[in-house]
Design goal:
There is one protein chain. It is built from 16 helices and 14 strands. The longest helix has 22 residues. The protein is 46% helix and 15% strand. Helix 5 crosses helix 8 and helix 14 packs across helix 15. It has a 7-stranded parallel beta sheet with strand order 9-8-7-6-10-11-12, with helices on both faces. With 458 residues, it is of the alpha/beta class.
Length: 458
């Protein structure tokens, strides 16, 4: 069945509107070299916003004729777009927010290639070099704002959630917006979109004309979680690990709504970091919340955390059910503590330099069949290291569920095999089985076939 598409040409506004001939030349060279396919795939994902599709492989196959090229002009550039999804247009004109996102994709992919991947400025083999690289990517995107009091709330949660859960995320976002708090999410649908929609109403009622709706994504996941047009600051990070680090470096509090394997990955990432001894006294507000029907979900998450990384991890978060006002008040109080701590220690409000992130949480994990099979899923290691390996396991499940490369690997080689201590694997199996039963692995209307197999060490 053919898909409705449009052709158009668009011009940038702001930073990329005025470019030197040398800059335009580099853009042209990059667009027709090794970066073109990456740029094309990310651009297509941005244009596919609102389609209800969460399968990277299916998206690329559905729009095989899509093209995006750079046209050089004396006063800058234009993007020539052919075969773009019709959902990105209103009456034949591209939605403004989506147009901005296309140039954000171009900006970040080119900067990361020139400054991070190809340049010698950053030593990505060391923790400090990775943290510095994340900082420079965010600064290049104009995301870091000095002299602004802490007010950024990171919201995590699933793209495949129920209507009741989605409405609840909007209610929480509304209460945050009324209190002048800005929102940062993974920028996709579901629990990533709801808080932004709610906050826009709260900001409007308070006449807050500068509300920020930040979306952080990466090339592997962008097709499954296309940025929603509310996002007014979009940043494409190079990989999932740098995306996760960006969340915890720029955010001043984290709210977790119900979700699936990707949300479990985010929870384990943050708890693993907070369990590091050097972060023991560092305030970091973390709240799990959902509507009344989410009680069982958070009980399962809490049980899994207790079974695997222990009671100390359970002390680092609060669970609040069906009370958006209380969530917003807790976040606001927690951010006041963050502000006081950073002021006392001379840490920046806009980037959490003091947070210690072990290199095990920073180096990219490639979810191959061999790497998944060899993960150390046992308790004979520090709790924060077990959290790092559990995070990798859930990252692999996400890849097998929605990422183009992961889906193709499963089709070719069969299930990922996860092996570890019986108690840990039983708990993981229980949690993942619950995600499947609650339709949290794929968007509604699609039958889910597991991409993994749980095994137990003898």
């Amino acid at each position: 069945m053919s898909q409705a598409t449009y052709d158009t040409q668009i011009s940038p506004e702001g930073r990329m509107e005025v470019l030197s001939k040398a800059e335009v030349g580099r853009l042209l060279d990059s667009s027709h070299g090794g970066l073109y396919q990456l740029f094309r795939n990310c651009a297509l994902a941005v244009l596919n916003c609102g389609s209800g599709l969460d399968d990277g492989k299916e998206l690329l196959e559905r729009y095989k004729n899509f093209e995006i090229n750079i046209i050089q002009r004396e006063r800058g550039i234009k993007l020539d777009v052919k075969g773009a999804p019709a959902s990105a247009f209103v009456d034949g004109v591209m939605i403004k927010g989506i147009q901005e996102h296309l140039f954000a994709v171009l900006r970040d992919i080119l900067f990361i290639n020139a400054e991070i991947a190809q340049g010698a400025k950053f030593d990505l083999s060391h923790s400090e070099g990775i943290t510095d690289a994340v900082f420079h990517i965010l600064r290049n995107a104009n995301l870091l704002r000095p002299q602004v009091s802490p007010n950024l709330v990171v919201c995590w949660g699933g793209h495949s959630i129920s209507g009741t859960e989605y409405d609840y995320t909007k209610q929480v976002g509304y209460q945050l917006g009324l209190r002048g708090l800005d929102i940062c999410t993974g920028c996709g649908p579901g629990a990533m979109k709801g808080p932004m929609k709610g906050a826009t109403i709260g900001h409007a009622k308070q006449r807050t004309g500068h509300g920020r709706y930040i979306g952080l994504t990466e090339p592997g996941i962008i097709a499954a979680e296309a940025p929603n047009p509310i996002v007014n600051d979009l940043v494409i990070m190079p990989d999932i690990e740098k995306r996760l680090e960006a969340f915890v470096r720029v955010g001043h509090a984290v709210i977790v709504f119900p979700g699936g394997a990707g949300t479990a990955e985010e929870i384990l990432y943050l708890l693993g970091i907070l369990l590091h001894p050097e972060n023991a006294g560092l305030p970091f507000p973390l709240i799990f919340t959902g509507p009344e029907g989410a009680v069982d979900y958070f009980r399962q998450i809490d049980q899994f955390i207790g079974d695997t990384i222990g009671a100390e991890a359970q002390k680092r978060y609060k669970i609040i059910v069906n009370d958006p006002v209380q969530v917003a008040r807790e976040v606001e109080a927690g951010i006041r503590e963050v502000r006081a701590f950073r002021k006392a220690h001379g840490d920046a409000y806009y980037y959490n330099w003091m947070l210690k992130i072990d290199s095990e949480f920073q180096h990219p994990f490639e979810p191959t069949h061999a790497n998944m099979h060899n993960l150390a899923l046992h308790k004979n290691q520090p709790a924060h290291m077990l959290a790092a390996n559990l995070r990798r396991a859930f990252s692999g499940v996400v890849a097998g569920n929605v990422k183009d490369q992961g889906i193709r690997a499963i089709e070719k080689h069969g299930h990922f095999e996860l092996r570890g201590d019986p108690a840990i694997m039983d708990s993981m199996d229980t949690l993942l089985t619950a995600f499947i039963a609650q339709h949290r692995m794929k968007l509604p209307g699609k039958a889910y076939v597991p991409c993994y197999r749980i095994l137990k060490s003898g």
